[in-house]
Design goal:
Helix content: 55-70%
CATH superfamily of the largest domain: Outer membrane efflux proteins (OEP)
Number of strands: 8
Distance between the termini: 48 Å
CATH architecture of the largest domain: Up-down Bundle
Structural class: alpha+beta
Strand order of the largest sheet: 2-5-7-8
CATH topology of the largest domain: Outer membrane efflux proteins (OEP)
Number of domains: 2
Radius of gyration: 39 Å
CATH class of the largest domain: Mainly Alpha
Strand content: 5-15%
Order of helices and strands: HEHHEEEEHHEHHEHEHH
């Protein structure tokens, strides 16, 4: 009794473990956001632009620099502190702290600040778009694998059917009801189906391996997929205008294009600021030590020789061979091109949505047609098989009917998964696919 209970518990645990090992689509999407290499790289780029944004804020403050040197000089030396020429060896220490602040050309720093902020927004949008693109890619590989798995079931079914037909044909040949060559015709069809099944298994493994790479899972371990999909498909009304407006608000690639346009705008402003004179105020606090003076180092460096300087520097751009003007001109053209990209992207989004809606509508009709095609092919095959074994049909007619049935079943399977993918595509094109993992 104890052994029986142990066996039952072992089987239950084994079944539970197998069920847990199956990777669902929801789990795959979450793993992609955590592990995908492209997403990780974009996160690093975003962190870099965020740090540059902080740098631009601090550039508005005055700059402070320290200077110091210690040296020994032998030979004829002029001692600035005593105003005398000396020929013996002397030791010197100099130190100063200088603060400067550009008070006029603030436009340059403000443009730099806005530029760094736009760069950060662009990279943030790029990260979000990469996440969405990877999610759609994961969906595609996952569904392609499930489609191949379903096709394997179909091929396996028809291989079994063909094997049974081959056995039955062999029996009828032995009793003289069918000619001997019919065995080879049936056997050739059986081999063809098994070959197609192997091709499909190869495709299934390739798609699964691509999915594993996207998720950065251990390729040495077997990964089982859950064929039950969640409820994340787009099921709303497909109104082109409402979808278009939603896409303009939510799509990260469009937000990135807009941010890049702003980057070009502030790059132009940054170049234009080079035409403006630069006025800086500066303050210097320094001290010196000379071994030729009789007082100690602390007295000289911290009391006697302290100097403070405050001043104003002006730099006026006059002529540099039209280099600045040329750079400004190029920046202006880049900004115009960026604005054109924004306009073109809007048109692209509308066309993408319109094409996808047309594809979904067509595929929905195809599902109905292919269901009818599969049912008709199934009936035709059964009737042709009955005729054949009654001696009224030929093996070629039976083979054609069976192939039509196989192709119809595969086509129905393909369009079903294609329509599912199109629904996920619609989430992607409206910028809402990220909601699957939130």
């Amino acid at each position: 009794m104890n052994k029986l209970c142990f066996l039952i518990l072992f089987l239950i645990n084994s079944f539970a473990l197998t069920a847990q090992e199956k990777l669902s689509l929801d789990q795959a999407l979450k793993l992609a956001l955590e592990n995908n290499v492209e997403i990780a790289k974009n996160k690093n780029d975003e962190a870099s632009t965020k740090y540059d944004k902080k740098r631009a804020y601090f550039s508005l403050l005055p700059s402070v620099n320290g200077f110091g040197n210690v040296f020994e000089s032998t030979g004829t030396n002029f001692d600035q502190l005593t105003g005398m020429l000396r020929t013996e060896t002397g030791q010197y220490v100099n130190g100063s702290v200088t603060a400067s602040w550009d008070i006029l050309n603030v436009a340059n720093k403000l443009s730099d600040l806005k530029l760094s902020n736009s760069n950060y927004e662009s990279q943030k949008a790029q990260l979000a778009y990469t996440k969405e693109f990877i999610l759609l890619k994961v969906v595609g590989r996952y569904l392609e694998t499930l489609q191949a798995m379903k096709q394997d079931v179909i091929f396996n079914k028809f291989c079994d059917v063909q094997e049974e037909q081959l056995r039955r044909t062999d029996e009828l040949i032995k009793v003289g009801s069918l000619p001997g060559q019919d065995f080879y015709t049936q056997n050739a069809e059986w081999s063809r189906l098994k070959s197609l099944r192997e091709d499909n298994l190869n495709v299934m493994n390739a798609k699964k391996n691509e999915l594993i790479l996207l998720l950065r899972l251990d390729p040495s371990k077997e990964t089982q997929l859950d064929s039950i999909l969640g409820e994340g498909l787009f099921k709303g009304k497909m109104n082109i205008d409402s979808l278009y407006q939603k896409a303009l608000v939510s799509r990260k690639d469009y937000q990135q294009i807009e941010a890049k346009s702003m980057v070009k705008k502030y790059e132009l402003a940054l170049q234009r600021s080079k035409f403006i004179p630069s006025v800086s105020i500066y303050y210097d606090y320094g001290s010196r030590y000379s071994s030729f003076q009789t007082r100690r180092f602390n007295d000289q460096f911290y009391k006697d020789n302290i100097t403070t300087t405050i001043g104003l520097s002006v730099q006026v751009p006059i002529f540099n061979g039209l280099q600045t003007r040329n750079v400004v001109y190029k920046a202006r053209q880049d900004f115009k091109n960026a604005e054109l990209d924004v306009v073109q992207t809007k048109s692209n989004i509308y066309v993408e949505l319109k094409n996808l809606m047309s594809t979904i509508a067509a595929n929905e009709k195809k599902v109905t047609y292919r269901q009818d095609q599969t049912e008709s092919a199934s009936r035709a095959y059964e009737l042709e098989k009955e005729r054949y074994y009654l001696g009224q049909g030929s093996p070629l007619d039976l083979g054609v009917a069976q192939r039509n049935y196989v192709e119809a079943s595969l086509s129905l399977n393909q369009i079903n998964y294609q329509l599912i993918y199109n629904r996920f595509e619609l989430l992607f094109y409206t910028g809402d696919i990220i909601s699957l993992v939130q």
